[in-house]
User: Fold this.
Amino acid sequence: MMRAFKCSFESRATTIRSYEQNIMNRTRKTLVMLALITLLAAPALGKEHRKKNKGEKVSWKDVPAAVQATIQSNASGGKVVEVEKETKNGVVIYRAVVKDTDSKMSKVTVTDGGKLLKVKADDGRAKHKHKPLFGS
Assistant:
């Protein structure tokens, strides 16, 4: 009688181990699939966040006089290539791309009231040749 109990116990233990291994294998497969989906989806989802300039291009004549004056005074004698208008946190911002006299590109960021926010060298555009679209 003891022998029958022992065989029954061993077969149950084997069944339980097999069941646990099956669950572990399924869990591993699920985790690997989730990791692959995440790796494949991340670049597609991240493209929206990489777009820095969400503004619309505006012509120089549509830029307010205070903004034009601030851009021109911080352009270092360069020519305005393009201007983008963007609303950020309820504030209208104008971002102008300026080609300096030494052919280097820079960005001048100004509020709609004419307050200078930032002047930054635009190294990514420095490699490209741009013809001024407008400005003096």
Q: What stands out?
A: Residues 2-50 form the longest helix (49 residues).
